[in-house]
Write a structure and sequence with these properties.
The chain is of the alpha/beta class. The chain has two domains: 1-92; 94-319, no CATH class. It contains eight helices and nine strands. It has helices at residues 2-92, 95-113, 178-182, 220-239, 260-263, 279-290, 298-309, 313-319, and strands spanning 123-134, 137-149, 152-159, 164-169, 193-204, 209-216, 247-253, 266-267, 274-276. A five-stranded mixed beta sheet has the order 1-2-3-7-9. A hairpin with a 4-residue loop joins strand 5 (193-204) and strand 6. Helix 2 (95-113) packs across helix 6. It is rod-shaped, with a radius of gyration of 42 Å. The termini are far apart.
């Protein structure tokens, strides 16, 4: 009986040992599987992290390359535009604009001498280019002369035309000479034209008569009015509408005709844009303007001048 009990006890002990060994093996396998899974996940995370870092580095390098290319293209475009503007400014100063500038400087000197204004009250800026953004891209509008006074802003369009000038000719007021208007394609009855009859020294040997050239120049008053509006819009955007008032357009027929019969301009236009034919008329206009209420301080005039002189064409390239 004792032998049987010892046998049973031994068997139970062996079974217990086997159970402990089995549980140990199972735990070991479980821990090993967990470790393998953890290692696998760590490797995957490390691989993903490495790939992300590499991708970010690649994206950064590609971005830097594209950014550099864009900067180079922008600098090239800006260089071309600035060169274009410089070239246009260099070649667009025709004789008429130079004469007008001398006239304006002379008027300023006379007004200062007469005590009508100080040297700081009248700023004369020649050959200004105003950038205009449009659907077709960046464009510019040229101003022959910009005059800044405490009483206003003035845009002067110089027309240096030799010959007999008829300004504001329409089919309605042309009378018997309406055939001149008829020769201009698609001209409405109220559309104004500026016609210049230019006598030449060439003689027609067969007829013995002097040749005359007939030139049509469109509507200078409309041209300068549009320019004045473009300038007003530009300055309003830069300085604020409350700081910029109406910009006054002026047409100056600056050519001093030698022949007596050519001096007087036949002006038929109903347009309200101011038009002058000599220095005396232009001076009288500015004398009368200086009698008006001042709307700009000297600081305002300097701000307007600075806005004109510091035009950033790159900004308009980016916006266009």
């Amino acid at each position: 009986m004792q032998y049987i009990m010892e046998y049973i006890a031994g068997s139970l002990f062996c079974i217990l040992i086997l159970c402990i060994w089995f549980l140990y093996r199972q735990r070991k396998k479980y821990l090993q599987a967990q470790q393998e899974t953890l290692t696998k996940h760590q490797d995957e995370i490390a691989s993903i992290t490495t790939n992300l870092v590499n991708q970010q580095e690649q994206n950064r390098e590609e971005f830097q390359v594209k950014l550099l290319q864009t900067k180079q293209e922008l600098n090239e475009l800006e260089g071309k535009l600035n060169k274009y503007i410089s070239d246009v400014k260099a070649y667009s100063r025709n004789a008429g604009e130079i004469v007008t500038h001398q006239v304006l400087e002379g008027i300023k000197a006379e007004l200062i001498e007469e005590g009508c204004l100080s040297s700081y009250d009248m700023l004369i800026i020649p050959n200004v280019f105003i950038p205009i953004s449009s659907k077709q891209g960046l464009k510019t509008r040229q101003i022959d002369h910009l005059v800044l006074l405490p009483t206003g802003i003035y845009v002067i369009e110089t027309k240096y035309w030799r010959g007999k000038i008829i300004h504001g000719l329409t089919r309605e007021n042309a009378g018997e000479f309406s055939f001149i208007i008829d020769m201009m394609a698609q001209s409405s009855a109220d559309k104004e034209h500026t016609i210049v009859f230019v006598p030449t020294k060439t003689l027609d040997e067969s007829e013995g008569s002097t040749s005359i050239q007939v030139r049509s120049y469109g509507e200078p008053t409309k041209q300068v009015a549009h320019t004045a509006y473009a300038l007003q819009s530009f300055l309003s955007d830069r300085l604020g509408e409350e700081k910029v008032g109406y910009v006054t357009p002026i047409v100056y027929f600056g050519y001093q005709q030698v022949e007596e019969h050519l001096k007087e301009i036949l002006d038929l236009s109903k347009d309200s844009v101011a038009r002058f034919t000599n220095q005396g008329e232009l001076k009288e206009f500015f004398e009368n303007e200086m009698k008006k209420k001042r709307v700009y301080t000297l600081n305002d005039l300097q701000q307007i001048c600075q806005a004109i002189e510091s035009i950033n064409y790159r900004e308009f390239i980016m916006l266009s």
